[in-house]
Each structure stands twice: as C-alpha cells, then as structure tokens.
Design brief:
single chain, alpha+beta, Glutaredoxin, Glutathione S-transferase Yfyf (Class Pi), Chain A, domain 2, 2 domains, four-stranded mixed sheet, 55% helix, 6% strand, binds glutathione
Length: 202
C-alpha cells in the first residue's frame, strides 16, 4: 500500500497516525500538489491528498474512507468502535474536527491570495466556523479522558490533528488559553510516538 500525502495536510496526518497506531506498513510518497506532474489526480479525480493506493492498483480517498479501510484491515488496536452508536459518536467527532480543518484551510488559502483579491468577509466567515467548532469541541471533551467510550481511538486522533493544524497555522490565536480542556487533551496526545513522528513542519 502506498500513501500519497503532503507533510502539512491534517487529513493525511490523520491517516499516517492511524497506520502507525495499527502497525500497518504503508509506503509514504510525499507529493507537491502544485507540481504539473503530481500523480494525485491520476488516482483521485478531486486532486486531493491523502490517497491510498492499494496493492491491486485501486485507490481510496478521502481520509475518512482510508481510516475506515485501515481500521478494518487488521483487528490490532481498533480505533473505530464496532458498536453502532459508539461508531456514530466517533464519526461525529471526526466530522467536526475535519470541519474545523476545512475552515482553517480556507482561511489559509484566502490569506495566500494577493492582498487586493482577498475577501475579508470570507476569512471572517471561515474563522467563525473555526472558533464555533473549537468552542463545541472544548465543551464536549470536558472531564473526559478520551473522546468516546473512555478509550483512545479515531475521534482522539482526528481531534489531535485538527488542534495540531490550528497550532501550526494560527499560533497567535492563543487557542490553548481559550480552550483549556482541548489544551489538556492535546498535551496528552502529542506525547504519543504516532503524533511525534508526524508533526507538521514548515
Ligand atoms: N475531505 C478530504 C479533504 C482533503 C483535502 O482537502 N486535502 C487538501 C490538502 S490539506 C488538498 O489536497 N487540497 C488540494 C486541492 O483542494 O486541490 C479528506 O478528508 O481527505
């Protein structure tokens, strides 16, 4: 199996952490999305990372499908509960964490445009999604050791990747002071080797 990824994609990081936690051997191929020869579009018509290329040449996307595939691939260290109601809770945490990343990525892309073409209204709208999302995640994690069923799992990984991305892109927003429950959870997650090995860089 080969994973096409970029080092600073929070979605690709989620997949890499899942593979590490489950001890699944995945060959990593870093790509540059702006490169005209970037192979991603040959495997995902949407042109987005992560993409998992299976040994038979078939490809899987997006990150939510890939993590489900990997979790089923081996029963070692289950990250998504088999119980339906717990699984729905896990997927909801993931949806909100990924949604915070979607909004944060939109802000970053808007801010990269030449200043005269930037839309402050769009930046504000996307930042509101980030802050509303973080507020709800902060309330939901209150007094919990792990997100779902008192067990480390995909919900914690998705949350950790979203917080890592916010920390990486918006250092000066002081999210750790504003959302202390999230800060506490993050401080536990970043001690795991899977998080340490996949720190965002740049
Ligand atoms: N929902 C997708 C989001 C993937 C995504 O947006 N990836 C970004 C990198 S962080 C990307 O490839 N962007 C390139 C583009 O949109 O053309 C997932 O969970 O995999």
């Amino acid at each position: 199996m080969k994973l096409l990824y970029t080092v600073n994609s929070p979605y690709a990081r989620k997949v890499r952490i899942v593979a590490i936690e489950k001890h699944i051997d995945v060959t990593l191929q870093e790509v540059v999305l702006t490169d005209p020869d970037c192979p991603v579009k040959n495997h995902n018509p949407l042109g987005k990372v992560p993409v998992l290329i299976l040994n038979d040449g078939d490809s899987l996307y997006d990150s939510r499908v890939i993590v489900e595939y990997l979790d089923f691939h081996t029963p070692v260290a289950r990250l998504i509960s088999q119980d339906h109601s717990a699984k729905i809770k896990v997927r909801r945490w993931e949806a909100l964490a990924d949604g915070v990343c979607d909004a944060a990525v939109s802000v970053m892309l808007e801010q990269r445009k030449p200043e005269e073409r930037q839309s402050q209204a769009n930046i504000d709208k996307q930042m509101e999604k980030v802050t509303r999302g973080l507020e709800v995640l902060n309330l939901d994690i209150f007094k919990k050791k792990w997100c779902v069923n008192e067990t480390f799992g995909l919900a914690d990984i998705a949350l950790g990747c979203a917080l890592g991305y916010i920390d990486f892109r918006f250092k000066d927003m002081n999210w750790q002071d504003k959302y202390p429950n999230l800060a506490k959870h993050y401080s536990v997650l970043v001690k795991r080797p899977s998080f340490k090995q996949t720190m965002l860089v740049g």
